[in-house]
Structure formats: C-alpha cells, structure tokens
C-alpha cells in the first residue's frame, strides 16, 4: 500500500493540496473510521453542511431527510440555487461539507469548485465537496471529481447513506457510488497507450479489486471482509484512486475533462 | 432512438404528378428513367428511342436529351418510392452497394455502339470529319461535369462517404480533362502547333489565376454547406426524439395521477419513464436505440434485461457496465441466467432497496454479478422452488461452459456471480 506523501502537495496547485491532506486526515480519521459506518452513532458527530442545488423541491427534500440535527448530527447552515449564490454562501458560512449539484445555472458545479478552490485547499478546516447529481454522463461525473470534489453520489441515494457519505467526506475520505466506480474502471481500462506517468495512469490490482466491489454494491466493511483488509485500508485505496483520478493525464480522463472545459 | 425514413422536404408527394429526372438507376442525367417512370414505360424503350433519335438525326436526339436534362429538376422520378432510410449505414459502418440492373448495362453498351456507329458514319465531308472526335471528347467531358453538378444537388438526400466523394472529384477532373483535350485537338486541327504553346500557356495562366481567386472561397462555401446540413439533420433528429420523450413524459404524469393510490404502480411508471429519459440524455451519440430493439451487444442486453425485470416486478435495479462486446451464443445464455438471477433478486430480495447489477468485460472473460440486500437465505435449507431456479441458473451456465456461484446467508442478502468466456471468433 502506498502512502500519499507530502510531495503530492507540490503537484497541481488545485488538487495536489487536497491529496496531500488525505494522508494526515487518513491517519487522524483512523479511529473514527473504526467505529463503523452506522449513522446511529451520529449523536456525538457533528457536521456543518451547505446545500447547493437549483431545484428547491430537492433541497427541501434533502433538508427534511438529513437536517434533523439532533438525530443525524448534520446541520444545514446554508442553501444556494446557483453558482454566484453558492460561492457567496460558502465563503460566508465556511461549512465542512458542501453538497454540490453537478448541473447549476451559471457554469455548473465545476465552476463553484473552481471559485472555491482556495477554501478547499485551506490547511485549517478545509471545505470539502460531495457531488450529487441525477446525471449519468461520464464527463459530468469525472468532470466534478477532477474539479476537486471528494466523491459523487446519485440523487436516488437513501437519506441514511447520504448522511454516511457526508461524514466520510468530512473525515477526508472519498465516496464512490457504484456508478462512479464503473466509470473509473472504464477510464483506466487497459489500453495500448503507454502511460505518461506510471504512478498516476495505472490502477494497482488491489485498487481495481476495491473499485470492482464498490461497483457491485458492496459497503466498505464488506469489501474489507472480502479482501481480508481493514476498512481503513479500503479507504486509503479509494483515496489513492481519487488522487489518480484528479491528477492523471490519461487520455480518457483528459478527454472527459476537456469536454467540461476543465483543463 | 429509431432513425426514421424521411423523404426530403422537396419531394413530398406532390399533388400533381410532376416530371422528375431520376436520381438513381440512371446513366447520364436520369432523363430516360424519369420519363419512363412518368409515362409508365420500361426504361429500355425510352433509352432506345433516344438512341434511335440520336442515330437518325444526331443533333436532334442530343439536343432533346440535353434540353430535358437542363430543364427537368432532379427528383425521384421513375422509381417506386420504396422507403429508404436516410442513413443506410450498417452497425459496422459499411454501406451496401446495390447491383446495377441489367437494363443499365445493356443501355451502356448500346450507347457506346451508337457513339461508335455515329462516329464512323458521320461523314460530314472533307474537313469537318476531323472535328468529330474532338467534339465527341468535349461532349463526353461536359456530360461528366454536368453529372457532377447533379450529384452535388442529389447529395442533399444521400449522405456520401469519403470514398464516394473522391470518386466524384475524380470524375469531375476527368470531365475537365476531356474537355481540355478536345479543345486542344481542336486547336491542333485548326491552327498550327506553334500557336498551341502560347494558347495553352495563356489558358493555363488564366485558369490558375481563377482557381487561386475563387478556390478558397469555394472550398469554404462547400464546407459551410456540409456542416450546416449535418447540423440540420442532427437537430431534426433530436427534435423528433424530444417530442417523443415529452409526449411520453406527459403520458406518464397522467397515469401517475390516475394511479396515485397504487404506490407500486406509481413507482414502476416513474422508474420506466426515468429510464427512457436517461436513455435519451446520456447514451453516446449514434447508439440511440429503442428498448424494443433486439440488443446485439452485452451492455445493451444487460440493460434491457434489467429494464424488463424492473418493469415487471417494480423493484429498481441499478446497472453498472464496464467495457462491452458483441453477443455470442454463450453470452446469450449468460444473459438468460443473469435475467433469472435478476428476477429472483427482485422477487425475494427487493425489500432491501435497489438490486445492484454489475457486468464487466475483461479480455476474453465476461463477468456478471447480481446482488440484492434482501433477507438472504441458508443455501442448505432452500425451498424447492428456489432450488429449481438456482439449478436453471447454474445448470445453464455449465451447459455453455461457464460458471455460476450463488452466495447467500440469512441477513446478508444474496449474490449471484456468473462467468463466461467469449467465443474465439467473436472479436469486438
């Protein structure tokens, strides 16, 4: 297992920083992660969240599902319906996690990520982003991840799983929906093209196995059991994949990213 | 997304029967075929008539034909309007060539014979005889170029591939060359060779200058036209599908209001509509397919099976596919088994939320897993009916040389894993 060293932070100014933190966070979050993923223990966990989505109905629904702070530990501190609003609200409230819709008026979730990059890279209390979308388009999904989001879930996710994902993002982990795992496997599929950067353009066998199990609908705990590794190790594999996803110059990834004008 | 056969707007069945030149199955300008279609005669007769005119009073036949050619618009005369799709490209991007009909071949031979006879017999006396060949050359060249222009017009409703375009270009050039040759021969016959050099140089200089001046503009214009045309066709297609989608969304909303007190039906309707919409929004260009079509690749087959099970049992199935390949016999069997597994998961494990379906093509191996989060069961204490189904899954996979594993434990849900190697000849 490779640890993400500090040198990663010297990489891309936008994403490298976030990746650098993963290592420290990963160590710190170890104990928290060991406690399992049940939202039932949320009572002692707290997280401040901003909802960014242009559909008022959806925001209301999410608010109703996760916003009961006493039960869930999630406190919704702000909402926004477009890019400008979102940037303003995020700067004003400094939440720990932003639930970010991919399609937004004013440039989409990607634009929010771009304009909040300094906050995301802050050493103290960084703002982390979890993308939420109805979209199935690979370029959308890969696009927001390369833009700096720490995960991607579809809007059909259950309230409980969403709360779970929010806490996981707060702890600095990555959250992959089965669909995102599928896209990543596709993007890193073996091609004849030689890798530009051996470390970034290839997935290790282990990472592949983990992604495959995520795509098959396994929870982290189940993946750990299946591969005889700890949940923490599963998480570090997923974080490594996220980092590769954000920094790799692989042709497919770049293509998807340029489709969203990210590069 | 079906590609509908659309006739171009210019050839909507006109109320009055008009005379058109035929765009296909023609030799020169399609005049004979168009006339034949218009008059309801076999095309060979018309061609023979023209040929007869041509032989009897040379200029008259030619003049008549030329007059028709210039005056009559190109359309789809003379051919029964069998429904021909706009894009007749097969899935692998090949276009089938139609065999030329025998009438064409016969007519071509007749034409050549006629031309030869004419050239031989046209004894216009003394000097003029020498002009016959150059005139013929020029004539053939002009005909070639004219056909070229016709083709450009025709391209509005047949998309021409790159090779075809090259061929057309070659034909145009050949026409120009023939005309040039004819003119050169004229000059040679009329004047002395000494003048030829100067005349040629001057002509070439003028031509080159014109090409330089008008060339870029012409090229850009043709590019713009092509681009505009493809854009229009694409927009039209999309608009059609959008209309269809909007229509079915409205239908679904109506049905949902009607069935508001039947939650499972509402869920089923919403899910089916969502699928259709996703299909339209997120499928890559050109792979748009109706769910009614028979799938021919693995990814399509998996999605289709999942869609059917979803509709029938009202349990959502989330499908993730990595890679793709064409279906063969073994994989078809695997799809059957996967479908059984999906039905099982929906029936017994649907209580635990969405069923997760994962299919992956890796090298020669195709792997499919179907996982539900239902109550699960003890494999050693299965009721008979489930045993039967399991046999049908495992047995079927074995018969075709694949493997199947079923894993389940009470409280853990159930997972079926199917693995099958692709056959050697199917390469995708």
From TrEMBL, chain B:
The source's superkingdom equals: Bacteria
Task: Indicate the transmembrane segments per the record.
Answer: 48-72, 105-125, 131-149, 169-189, 195-219
This protein's record includes keyword Electron transport: no
Residue ranges constituting the Histidine kinase/HSP90-like ATPase domain according to the UniProt record: 335-422
Region Disordered: list its residue ranges.
Answer: 404-428
Pfam family membership, one: PspC
Can you say what this protein is called? Histidine kinase
Span of domain Phage shock protein PspC N-terminal = 17-73
What keywords appear on the UniProt entry?
Kinase, Membrane, Transferase, Transmembrane, Transmembrane helix, Two-component regulatory system
GO MF annotation list: kinase activity
């Amino acid at each position: 297992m490779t640890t993400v060293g500090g040198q990663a932070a010297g990489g891309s100014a936008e994403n490298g920083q976030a990746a650098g933190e993963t290592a420290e966070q990963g160590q710190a979050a170890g104990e928290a992660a060991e406690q399992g993923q049940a939202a039932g223990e949320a009572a002692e966990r707290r997280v401040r969240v901003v909802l960014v989505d242009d559909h008022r109905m959806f925001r209301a629904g999410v608010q109703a599902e996760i916003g009961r702070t006493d039960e869930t530990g999630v406190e919704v501190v702000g909402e926004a319906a477009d890019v400008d609003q979102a940037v303003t609200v995020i700067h004003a409230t400094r939440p720990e996690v932003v639930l970010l819709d991919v399609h937004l008026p004013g440039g989409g979730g990607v634009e929010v990520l771009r304009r909040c990059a300094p906050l995301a890279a802050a050493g103290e209390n960084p703002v982390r982003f979890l993308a939420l979308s109805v979209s199935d388009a690979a370029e959308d999904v890969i696009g927001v991840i390369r833009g700096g989001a720490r995960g991607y879930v579809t809007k059909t996710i259950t309230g409980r799983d969403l709360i779970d994902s929010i806490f996981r993002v707060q702890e600095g982990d990555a959250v992959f929906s089965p669909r995102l795992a599928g896209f990543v496997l596709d993007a890193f599929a073996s091609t004849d093209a030689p890798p530009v950067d051996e470390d970034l353009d290839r997935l290790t066998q282990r990472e592949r196995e983990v992604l495959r199990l995520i795509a098959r609908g396994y929870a982290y705990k189940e993946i750990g059991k299946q591969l005889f590794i700890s949940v923490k190790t599963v998480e570090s594999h997923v974080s490594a994949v996220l980092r590769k996803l954000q920094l790799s110059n692989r042709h497919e990834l770049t293509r998807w990213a340029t489709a969203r004008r990210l590069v | 997304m079906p590609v509908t056969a659309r006739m171009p707007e210019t050839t909507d069945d006109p109320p009055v029967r008009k005379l058109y030149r035929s765009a296909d199955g023609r030799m020169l300008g399609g005049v004979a075929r168009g006339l034949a279609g218009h008059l309801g005669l076999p095309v060979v007769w018309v061609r023979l008539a023209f040929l007869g005119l041509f032989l009897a009073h040379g200029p008259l036949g030619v003049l008549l034909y030329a007059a028709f050619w210039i005056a009559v618009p190109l359309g789809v005369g003379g051919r029964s309007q069998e429904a021909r799709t706009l894009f007749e490209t097969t899935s692998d991007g090949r276009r089938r060539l139609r065999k030329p009909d025998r009438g064409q071949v016969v007519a071509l031979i007749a034409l050549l014979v006629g031309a030869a006879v004419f050239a031989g017999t046209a004894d216009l006396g003394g000097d003029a005889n020498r002009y016959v060949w150059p005139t013929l050359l020029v004539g053939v060249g002009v005909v070639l170029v004219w056909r070229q222009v016709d083709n450009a017009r025709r391209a509005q409703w047949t998309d021409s591939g790159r090779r075809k375009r090259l061929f057309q270009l070659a034909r145009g050039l050949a026409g120009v060359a023939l005309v040039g040759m004819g003119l050169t021969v004229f000059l040679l016959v009329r004047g002395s060779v000494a003048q030829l050099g100067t005349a040629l140089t001057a002509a070439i200089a003028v031509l080159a200058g014109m090409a330089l001046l008008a060339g870029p503009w012409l090229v850009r214009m043709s590019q713009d036209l092509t681009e505009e045309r493809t854009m229009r066709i694409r927009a039209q297609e999309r608009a059609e599908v959008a209309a269809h989608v909007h229509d079915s969304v409205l239908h679904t909303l109506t049905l949902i209001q009607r069935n508001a007190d039947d939650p499972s039906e509402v869920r089923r309707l919403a899910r089916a509509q969502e699928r259709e919409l996703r299909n339209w929004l997120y499928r890559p260009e050109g792979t748009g397919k109706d769910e009614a079509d028979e799938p021919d690749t693995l990814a399509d087959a998996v999605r289709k099976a999942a869609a059917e099970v979803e509709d029938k049992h009202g349990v959502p199935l989330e499908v993730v596919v990595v890679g793709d390949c064409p279906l063969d016999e073994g994989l078809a069997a695997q799809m059957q088994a996967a479908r059984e597994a999906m039905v099982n998961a929906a029936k017994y494990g649907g209580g635990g939320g969405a069923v997760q379906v994962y299919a992956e093509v890796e090298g020669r191996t195709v792997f499919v897993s179907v996982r539900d989060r239902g109550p699960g069961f003890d494999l050693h204490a299965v009721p008979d009916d489930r045993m039967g189904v399991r046999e049908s899954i495992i047995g079927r996979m074995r018969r075709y040389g694949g493997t199947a594993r079923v894993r389940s434990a009470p409280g853990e849900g159930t997972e079926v894993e199917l693995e099958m190697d692709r056959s050697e000849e199917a390469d995708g």
